[in-house]
Design brief:
Layout: H1 2-22, H2 24-53, H3 59-87, H4 92-113
Length: 118
């Protein structure tokens, strides 16, 4: 999980710096988008650690916990997108681009190192 977060942070910082050279408002939006992806990764890691520590005797409970975690992250993402785009009036393209780049990094690194070690 640590390697994924570091990669996401580096991607986010790279995009933020790129946008900061153009306009500071774009940099704020891209930082917000990258932060959403990184918090998603943290939430996923926390839930995975809890599951590893207390595997249920019934596999259905574990599947339910995985689904609950996915729903939790989905709702968090939608809510934070709403906050960033509607309430904070951040620029949509840079926010979504950075979120997408950081989130894609999650899947690339997870596939590369293997989900078992995430």
């Amino acid at each position: 999980m640590k390697q994924i977060l570091i990669t996401q942070l580096l991607i986010t910082l790279g995009i933020v710096i790129f946008y900061a050279l153009k306009e500071s408002q774009l940099a704020y939006a891209s930082a917000f988008g990258g932060a959403i992806a990184m918090v998603n990764t943290l939430l996923h890691g926390i839930r995975l650690n809890r599951m590893r520590q207390a595997l249920a005797k019934n596999p259905q409970q574990d599947v339910f916990k995985i689904l609950l975690g996915a729903m939790e992250r989905f709702v968090f993402t939608i809510f934070m997108m709403f906050v960033g785009l509607s309430m904070l009036q951040l620029e949509a393209t840079s926010l979504l681009l950075t979120f997408g780049a950081a989130y894609i990094a999650y899947f690339i690194i997870a596939a590369r190192i293997g989900m078992a070690r995430v």
